[in-house]
Amino acid sequence: MGHTLLRVTPSLFLSLLLCCGNVEAWVPVLTVSPSWLSPGASVTLSCRVKTSSLSWMFYWYRAVPDLPNKNYKYELLPDGIDGTVEDSYILHGQKHTAGFACRAKGGNPEDLTGYSEPKFVWSAGSHPEVSLTVSPKAEKLFSQQDVQLKCHGSSAAWRVRKFETTGYSTYLSDCSSWGTMTGSWCRFRSRWPQNAVFWCESGSGEFSNAVNLTLHKPESVLTVSPSWLSPGAPVTLSCNIRPPSVGWRFYWYQAAPDGSHTKYNYKLLPGNTSGTVKDSYIIHGQKHTAGFACRAKGGNPEIFTDYSEPKFVWSADPHPAASLSVSPDREKLFTVDDVLLSCQGNPTGWRVMKFEKTEKSSYLSDCSSWGKLTGSSCTIKSHWSHKAVYWCESETEEFSNAVNISMHTPWSILTVSPSWLNPGASVTLSCEVKPSSAGWRFYWYKAVPDLSKNSYRYELLPESISGTVQDSIIIHGQKHTAVFACRAGRGNPEDFTYYSEPKFIWSADPHPAASLSVSPDREQHFTSESVTLNCGGNSAEWRVKEIREINKLSLEPDCSYWGKMSGSSCTINSNWSHQAVYWCESETGEFSNSVNITVHDEDLLLVSPVHPVTEGASVTLSCRRRGENKLSDVIFYHNDKLIQNDSRGELKISAVSQSDEGFYKCEHSGEVSPQSWMRVKAASRTESSSFPLLLVVGTVSGVVFILLLLLLLLSRFRNSRGSDFLGPSEDSGNDPPDFQHVTYALVNLKHGEKKGEPGEPVGGAVYSVVKTGAAGTFSDYDKVSSLIRKTEH
Q1: Torsion angle of alpha carbons 499, 500, 502, 504, nearest 10°?
Q2: How many whole angstroms separate alpha carbon 395 and alpha carbon 349?
Q3: pLDDT: is 301 or 532 the higher one?
Q4: Which of 109, 219, 764, 174 is nearest to 449 (CA)?
Q5: Which of helix, strand or coil describes residue 299?
Q6: What gap in Å lies between CA 244 and CA 218, rounded to an integer?
Q7: Exposure letters 358-386 (e unless 16+ CB within 10 A, then b)
Q8: Does residue 435 have a cis bond before it (omega within 30 degrees)?
Q9: Nearest one of 221, 199, 219, 197 to 209, comparing CA atoms
């Protein structure tokens, strides 16, 4: 085959330039697959031109070494004279290393592009006329080691080529760029690890076998056992070479602190001048914290590895000339604590070191990286949990005792009991700090919906501005759905834990300013049925929230994530079974009543009201089968007790009483529905003792009017001792000591819209604390006066 010269006419150059905007667009790119030959496998050449706006013909070439010109000659492959419309070409029967190139013809008038860069297919099998051998013939070769590549064959002229990929780039070069070529020998020594393919090319145009060489940088890795000294126990140092290889001698060093740097000086251990053939070394009589290192020598010519990273054996016993103390000196330290590490001893120059190990790595650093060094003391305040070993190093090369410190991130966990409000029942909030420790003050918050941020803001409850020593508080008179959180603080200045996760107290009773209704009005629903949750009240903006029970309770995002929100309504259509509590939250910060809804993939469900039934009202329960509207011959159970078994399909209760509250389920044709709880609420009573209380706040005349009115009605209040409004009952002896005779009474007041500073008590509800003495010694008049004094503020 002849040598086809590159020819690009001005017309093609101009058309391509106008087409593509740059010259690179018309340089074809060749890919070869596979890169390494397998016996009997074909080789596919693919040619791509960056611009596709022209119609191309493709031409395929074999790259033949041209040593005098330090390049390649290109010879058309068989059947390639007329080119191909296809942009790929398949070679069969290729056995030896070879190079290829391509170019394309197009444009108007037609002409050829330049050649692509040559690409290679490599074979480990020797060519009959040329071959490559590597010395030393070792399993692993290392950087800094002399490597010799020898070309064999009848040719008088040779070059050794290297193809290397680094990052996103590839490099093709010959021995003169990275080694020394002498006749048929190429000798080189690499300073860095590398992986590359090497082969010989002869003056007569042949390619040798290719060799894939990986040059490793030998690394010494030291391990010390044990890490912490035990009295009388020896210390074993072990040095491993990575990657593993044989023929090394090992040298053992003591790491001495370098006072002018954050590094170490390495001093050979006694009796170790010539190194050891064995890769371990035993030290007897070590009493104090110390650092060690190793390195190895091997190869031909011999080379030293770098020093290993220093490793330490730690002792809790102080050195006579250096010691470390920790303040505060307690079992658990937290990320909110300021920790002081103090170095003591004769030297004047110190550094405090930390050794920290994570799952994948270990880190050695000094105080300047993570704390503040002042003289001989290092102050640290960590923002994350960790466990590390700390010690002092002096300018005179002494190590202090070592201290193992665990820094914990404290978090607050709130529990609320009960979860659902019962009329007249108190609510207990309990806050626990994990990991448990003493010395905390607890702060209690009401979570207020913040629709603009799709989250909650936290407002301190009354009597919680200064926190409480007790880890629980009791709230009386809570009537509506509410959300609470807690956190704890300690220290001076006080540092706080994060807020606990919000916890909910649910009420089935609607708030005067926010209510939730469900359509259809039933608790149980089939999968794939649409359920609409409607928010009602004064607010112009709403969000519907849910807490779903799968394996555990989880607070889900708002309706926009699991349903479809339209105005004040949320429509859900679930394809899987679940049980969840739903409620509305308004832009003005109110919570609606809560409802419990279950979705089932079963075929039989109970139809029961989702809202509480008022005492004295009538209610009808029925049974539904998927796809059927009405059933007959239905059996009904109340708290697992059969209460109706006849031809009727409904259970009618004409006047509901408290005894009707409980679990209900139905049975039809031998199939039993899931059960649901029907709640019965007391009917509202209009009694002579129940009258509106007018509170005129802000003027003297208003207060006087209230005093006169309440004094006239003292007898009425005497009859209501123990009510939720006034607070403690006569029988308060079983209350916890710190909460005896304390009631948080919920009094709704009509204040002007005035926002408090962060940390002020919640607006909209007054949690007034009425403190009494022994039972019967604090008059009703004093009770009323105490309540009024609270409302004046």
Answers
A1: -140
A2: 5
A3: 532
A4: 764
A5: coil
A6: 9
A7: eeeeeebeebeebbebeebbbbbebeeeb
A8: yes
A9: 199
- Residue that the structure tokens 């004279």 belong to: 81
Residue 573, SS3? strand
Residue identified by tokens 């978090």 is 411
Contacts (Cβ under 8 Å, ≥6 apart) of 595: 508, 516, 518, 523, 533, 581, 582, 583, 610, 611
List, for residues 210-255, the tens digit of each pLDDT value: 999 999 888 999 999 999 998 878 999 999 999 888 889 999 999 9
Token digits of residue 324? 């470390």
Whether the Cβ atoms of residue 76 and residue 59 lie closer than 8 Å to each other:
yes
Q: Which of 422, 410, 563, 556 lies closest to 491, judged by CA?
A: 410
Dist. CA 355–CA 241, nearest whole Å: 23
Q: How far is CA 290 from CA 229, 357, 517, in A?
A: 10, 18, 72
State the pTM of this model.
0.59
What residues does 598 pair with on adjacent strands? Answer: 524, 579
Pairing type for strands 680-681 and 613-614 reads parallel
Strand ranges, E, within 277-426: 280-283, 290-298, 303-304, 311-313, 322-327, 333-334, 339-345, 350-357, 362-366, 372-374, 377-380, 386-394, 399-408, 411-417
For residue 587, count CB atoms less than 10 angstroms from its CB and return exposed for 0-12, middle for 13-18, buried for 19 or more.
middle
- How many C-beta neighbours within 10 Å does residue 230 have? 9
